[in-house]
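Why Glutaredoxin-C6? Reviewers of the renewal asked for a concrete example.
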Amino acid sequence: MQGLRRYGPLADGGVRLELTPTAASPLAIDVAESAETRIQRLISENQVIIFSRSSCCMCHVMKRLLSTIGVHPTVIELEEDEMTALKARNNGGGASVSPALYIGGACVGGLESLVALHLSNNLVPMLVEVGALRNELLIN
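Here is what the prediction returned.
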């Protein structure tokens, strides 16, 4: 049977889910799916998603910033082959991509890009536009 386990709230407000795939579940993971296809699917299925390596301190800061304004992104910890696929997708295999933030399917970049969007007052409107943040929750 499908094993979806929820591990209580994390220190940063997120929730860790662990999925044990089976073919009978709608949540099943297609093991034949390539890393590139899986990454593209996840980007298109999630309004705000962060791709990271485990124990990435910049990812933690990114999650805290988004959480502070009321957004709880999907966070995917990638294996090395998946990081290579993400690098190739983002910048032709150049510089490190961890963490990599996508909002509404568009690559925002890393922590520096997120902070720049926030400081220029462009982050919240972007999150409202993609539906990750409701406009009525904002203080005018």
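The radius of gyration is 16 Å. This is the kind of structural detail the renewal will allow us to pursue systematically.
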